[in-house]
């Protein structure tokens, strides 16, 4: 048994001797040569600018983030604007202008005296709507009452205070639409 152990140890040491420093030494010498010959160039950083603090006298000045200031300016601009889309803000509101459009559902149509009416349900109440009637909270006017939808032209104000028109449609709600 001891001869086998000695033979195994001799074989293992011969194998380990084969894993020696043959090619690694050449690679290390090359890396040392490249390190020695390479000189990195780094641009110097610019000197930092001097910071001059500014004392904001908030007590004496108008708050630039005050929403009332923006709303006042938008109202003043809108009052002097001659935009053709601008709604009549002095006109008395109709009943259906108190409800948002997304709370209304078209549930049917009917004809009375040659005029087509759409039947709108708001909460649990039913209303008749015809072409030309005011509807919704965005100064909407019904432009067309069809069999399966009503077309509405709304006038909305953008962030800059300009009035622009957009077309919306309320479609007939059927059992398939509810699912």
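^ Assign residues to that structure.
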């Amino acid at each position: 048994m001891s001869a086998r152990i000695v033979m195994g140890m001799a074989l293992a040491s011969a194998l380990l001797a084969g894993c020696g420093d043959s090619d690694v030494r050449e690679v290390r010498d090359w890396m040392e040569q490249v390190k020695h010959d390479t000189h990195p160039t780094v641009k110097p950083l610019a000197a930092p600018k001097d910071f001059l603090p500014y004392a904001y006298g908030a007590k004496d000045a108008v708050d630039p983030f005050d929403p009332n200031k923006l709303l006042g300016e938008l109202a003043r601009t809108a009052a002097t604007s001659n935009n053709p889309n601008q709604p009549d803000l002095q006109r008395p509101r109709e009943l259906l202008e108190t409800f948002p459009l997304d709370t209304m559902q078209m549930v049917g149509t009917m004809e009375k005296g040659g005029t087509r009416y759409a039947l709108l349900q708001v909460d649990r109440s039913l209303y008749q709507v015809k072409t030309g009637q005011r509807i919704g909270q965005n100064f909407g006017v019904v432009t067309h009452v069809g069999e399966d939808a009503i077309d509405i032209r709304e006038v909305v104000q953008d962030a800059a205070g300009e009035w622009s028109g957009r077309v919306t449609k309320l479609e007939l709600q059927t059992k398939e639409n509810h699912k």
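The mean pLDDT is 83.
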